[in-house]
Amino acid sequence: MSAAVEHTESATEASHDAHGHEHGHDGHVPKDSYFIKIAIILAVVTALETSTYWWPESLSGVATPALLIMMAIKFFMIVSIFMHLKFDSKVFSFMFYTGLGLAIFVYLVFLFTFQFFRT
C-alpha cells in the first residue's frame, strides 16, 4: 500500500474507539426523534397561531397576548434547540434572550402608543 492510503486508514481507525463509535461527533447532539418531536410541537403552536384568524370577536382582546406568548415559545424552542444554544456558552443564550425581551418590549410600547389595548 502507498503511504497516503495507510495514513488515511490509520486516521479512520483512530477516530473510532474499540466499540466502533466515532470520536469526531459532538456527544450532546440529540437523536433525530427528538428533533421530530420538536418539529411537531412547533407545527401545533403554528396551527394555534394561525387559528386566531377564526376566533370569535369576544376573544379578540386575548388574541394579541396569546400570539405574543406563542411567539415567545417558538422563539425559545428554535433558538435553544435548533441553534444549539442549549449546549453552547450561556453568553450566547443571554444575547438571544435579551434580544427577545427587547423585541417584545418595543412591540408592546408600539401597541400602547397607538392605544391598541383600549376597548
Tell me the number of helical segments per DSSP (H or I, 4 or more residues long).
4
**SSE sequence, one letter per element:** HHHH
Unreliable spans are: 8-17
Helix % is 55-70%
Number of strands: 0
- Note the beta-strand portion: under 5%
* Largest sheet composition: none
What does this structure look like?
- By secondary structure, the chain is mainly alpha-helical.
- The longest helix is centred in the C-terminal third of the chain and has 24 residues, at 90-113.
- The termini are far apart.
- Helix 2 (32-51) runs antiparallel to helix 3 (60-82) and helix 3 runs antiparallel to helix 4 (90-113).
- 66% of the residues lie in helices and 0% in strands.
- Residues 8-17 have low confidence and may be disordered.
- It has a domain at 32-113.
- It is built from 4 helices and no strands.
Features:
119 residues, mainly alpha, 4 helices, 0% strand
Q: In a few lines, what is going on in this structure?
A:
This protein is mainly α and 119 residues long. The protein has helices at residues 3-14, 32-51, 60-82, 90-113. Helix 2 (32-51) runs antiparallel to helix 3 and helix 3 packs antiparallel against helix 4.
